[in-house]
Each structure stands twice: as C-alpha cells, then as structure tokens.
Amino acid sequence: MKVALAQFIYESNTFNSQEADLSCFDPRGIWLTEPAAIREWASSNRSQMSGSLDDLAATDCSTEPFFVAVCGTPGGRLSRDCYDHIRTTLAESLQRVLPADVLVLHFHGAVCAVGQDDVEGELLEMIRTELGFRGRIVLSLDLHANVTARMLQQVDVSTAYRTFPHQDFYETGQRAAQLCLESRSTVRTIAKIPAIIPPTATDHRTGRFAAMLAAARELESNPDIVDVSLFPVQPWLDIDDLATRVVVNAVSPEAGAATAQQLAEHWFAQRHDWDTGLIEWPEILSTLASPIGKPWLLVDTADATTGGSDGTSAEAIEQLWLYRETLPGPVLLWVVDPEVVQGIKIGASTVQFGLQKISISGEIIFNGECRFTPRGQAYQGQEFSCGHAIVLRAGSLHIAVTEQGCLCADPAFYECLDLDPSSALAVQVKSHMGWQAGYEVGPERGLRFDGPGCTSVNFARLPFTGSRRDLFPLSASSPNPIELWQST
Questions:
Q1: Does residue 439 sit in the same domain as residue 473?
Q2: Distance CA 456, CA 334 (A)
Q3: CA gap 174, 176 in Å, rounded
Q4: Which segments within 295-362 are labelled E, that is strand?
C-alpha cells in the first residue's frame, strides 16, 4: 500500500486585518515540496509528519511525502495570491506522487483566505473533484479547528490533537498513520455547540476540559467508536458556521450520533463555569512584589502571537514602566515593532514602543538576530525566527523588540537574546497556554492580563458580527443548543 503525506499548518485570526503572504512560510516558516527534503526535515523534529513517517516505516507500506507548509506565526487571512500559490503547489506536488492508495493530510482546520472562509474544506474538495482522488483520506487536525461538514464529507476518517498546551504533534501523526491501516468504514458525526470557549479554560491536564477528554477516551472503548475528537475552536474567527464541536468517527451512524450528542450536551452544560483567568494589574503588581520560586509568567492574552495577533501591544511595558527601579528582580518583556528595531539600528536613542507609542529610553544590551529552537515540551526540533531584535535595559526591565512575532512561547526565545529567563522575576509571553509547555510550569505560575490586541479572551469587546453574536457568551442562550451532522 502506498501512502502519500502532506502537512499544511496555518491559523487565521480574522480580527487581524493584515493579510498573510508567502513570507509567512518561506523564509519565516517551512516550505518543502521535495520528498527527500521533507524526510530530512521530519527526521529532525517531532511533528505530525515525523510521527506518521516513523510509524508507517514499521509496516509494509511505502510512503511518499509531497508537501509541507508550516507558518512561522499565525496571523490574518491568507492573501488571495498566497492561497492560490498554496493550492496550486499542493495540487501539483500531489499529482507528481500519484497514484496512491491513501492520503494522510495534516491540516490545521482554521485557515481563512481572502474570499474563502473554509480553506481546508476547499482543498479537500479540490483533491476529490478536480484531482479525482478516490483512495482513502486520513485527516488530522488541530483541536482549534473549525471543523466543517465540507471537510469531513471528503475524508474517510479523522483525528486531532488531544493536548492544550499542544504537546502531541508526533503522537497525532502516529495515530493518523494507524488509521491508514483501519479497515472499517466510518461515519463522521459533528455535534455543533453554539459557544466559544476561552482557551485558558481548555487545559488537557486539569479541570473540566481534562475530564471531557477522559470521557472521550472512555467512549472509544466501544468497539463501534474509532475516534472521538473535541474542538474548542479558534475563537477569533468572525465567519459563518463558527462553533465549538465534537467529532465522532464511528462504524455505525447510531453509535456516532449518540456519542456526539452525549458529549456535546455535557460540554455545553459547563459553559457558565468556563473561566478566562484574567487578573487586574494591581494584583499582578502585588504578586511581583513578593517573588516566590520560579519566574512568574506575564501572559498577554489579548496580544498572543500564537493566536494570530501581531504582538505589537506594549501593555506590560506601560504598566511596569513606573516600577522599573523598584521591582525586586529582572523582568523580561517583549514587543513586536519593526520600526523601533530599524530606528535603533540607525542610531535612535529614544523610541516609541508598540501600539501605545510609549516613549522610553534604555541601554542597548543586544543587537542581532532572534532565531531559536525550542527546548521545552512543544515544537521540539523546529526552528523559529523573529527577525532582527534589540534588547533595551531600563532598571529591572529588559525589553526585547523584534521585527516579527512567532508561534512558540519558549525560554529559548529569550536565551537567544542573551537573557536568562530562569533567573528573572517575571517573563512576558504572548501566548495563552503554550508557555506552560515551553517553560514546563503549571497554570498557577501565570499572571494573565487583558489589553489591546485581537486575541482577547474577553470576547464581548471584540467586534463579532452576524450569527456570531448568537454564540455563548455573546448570547446567554440558544434556541437549538446542539446540531448534528453526519457524512453520507
């Protein structure tokens, strides 16, 4: 049996008005179309592709990886030209390796382009209709996918990540490989829940979401159930059909429908207990005044580059600037501001930072490239770049300014700037949950704050339009809480 494999990872945030172009993938991310280059890349990391290739190597299947596009950072919609190029390249690369018996496609599931709200659904439809592929398709998704009927009608079986913060890319790839060998036909059932959940309320290790995942695993013990996946969705999508979902792959439609309905009703019933975890700045300042143990993580929930914001908010700098001489230890801060980087490179001594245009000055202690390989529990072996970087020191504040954001929240980011996060009083991260995997700490070390940016977990202050206004918590109730769809 011949298996062809591809990986396409990008996450859109439609509240970010800046369109993403090909530079998001090349040179800032990964763009590969040659099988040998893909194998070499996969052997160096623990991605979905590497998990699938490693697992299939132990079988009598032959494998042909044909396309990898992984973004350096999420952002707004893909530009029309960017998406057209991705679509054309994926199609041409696949045609070069056909015929094949099975396709393993590692997609994200929350990609929007200019003029297209369901990129993955359109790509899958293109593979079936325009390319005429009639073999088996195995689809893996991020658990923040906005899963649509258009996607699942085209595939034979699906699965998804089971961790947040994400740590199981490799294991998801292995599971997709195992589903290649699944001989039973499945019916895909979607239970659509009219709600969006703060990402801070979806920790796979503790709390209500962990219990939901445990329930999903228990339900998979039913021999009629092949895979159960939970999708708390990328919430910053102002598009039709946005929702939290449960997806069940089952041998019988009856088992799939009953399982999906049961889990969805239980999940929706918890909606009033979903917590943002936001803390006001007076409490944050009080906590920083009495340092205990490991560094505190200053979690900029509204400007998370990992969720598609641009990283340009200087909220933490603004709040801490008056205390720079009295804080009882170093505080490492970060803002994306290419104009400031360029200004300092040509000799500016006083600059205005971020969206807030805060005027500050400090000693330049680093001037160079920000490129790093994570060493925490996520994205092992993958390299990230934030372009050129400057670090200014003003009292206890060490402010990293980079040309661009990145997908990862890991101590290696600050370490590549000659800073030591392990000895800091606090470290800022522009990530909702990924910092827990990167810094290998629990949620109790996080000090979550709101501010400017398009990834706020205070959903009511974001300009959702149309049907999105009917989702909880924007609307208190729904006349039809759970909707079911099944593949035909």
A1: no
A2: 18
A3: 5
A4: 296-300, 331-336, 350-353, 358-361
Does residue 242 sit in helix, strand or coil?
coil
Same domain, 299 and 411: yes
Whether 10 and 85 map to the same domain: the answer is: yes
CATH number at residue 69: 3.40.50
Q: pLDDT value at position 142?
A: 98
Q: Phi and psi for 376 in degrees, rounded to 5?
A: -85, -150
Domain encompassing residue 119: 1-183
How many angstroms separate the CA atoms of 488 and 485, rounded?
A: 10
- Does residue 328 sit in the same domain as residue 201? no
d(CA 164, CA 202): 7
Question: Does pTM top 0.85 for this prediction?
Answer: yes
Q: Quick check: 66 and 3 in contact, CB under 8 A?
A: no
Per the CB < 8 A criterion, the answer to whether 105 and 179 are in contact is: no
Query: Where does residue 99 rank: exposed (0-12), middle (13-18), buried (19+ CB within 10 A)?
Result: exposed
- Rounded distance, CA 462 to CA 236, Å? 9
Phi-psi domain of 381 (left: phi exceeds 0; alpha: psi -120 through 50; beta: other): left
Task: Give mean pLDDT in consecutive 10-residue pieces for the chain, a chain of 488 residues.
Answer: 98 97 94 98 96 97 98 96 98 98 98 98 98 98 98 98 96 97 93 97 96 97 97 97 98 97 96 95 95 89 97 97 96 96 80 87 93 91 93 96 93 98 97 95 95 97 94 82 95
Closest alpha carbon to 301 in 323, 327, 324, 279: 279
Which of 158, 183, 208 corresponds to the end of one domain?
183
Answer yes or no: do 408 and 317 share one domain: yes
Measured in whole angstroms, how far is the alpha carbon of residue 42 from the centre of its chain? 19
Q: Quick count: other Cβ atoms within 10 Å of Cβ 206?
A: 10
In this structure, are strands 102-107 and 62-70 parallel, antiparallel, or unpaired? unpaired
The reply to whether 216 and 123 lie within a common domain is no
- Residue burial 374-402, b: 16+ Cβ < 10 Å; e: rest: bebbbbbebbbbbbbbbbbbbebbbbbbb
Amino acid at 467: S
Q: Is the domain of 1 the same as that of 89?
A: yes
Q: Tell me the HSE value of 81 on the side-chain side, using a 13 A CA sphere.
A: 6
CATH number of the domain where residue 252 is located: 3.30.70.100
Cα separation of the two ends of the chain:
26
d(CA 175, CA 160): 9
Burial of 182 (0-12, 13-18, 19+ CB in 10 A): middle
- The answer to whether the beta carbons of residues 416 and 370 sit under 8 Å apart is yes
Torsion of CA 206, 210, 215, 219, to 10 degrees: -130
Task: Report how many domains make up the chain.
Answer: 3
Q: Say whether both 447 and 479 belong to one domain.
A: no
Q: Rounded distance, CA 226 to CA 341, Å?
A: 51
pLDDT value of position 479: 62
Both tokens assigned to 293: 């143990």
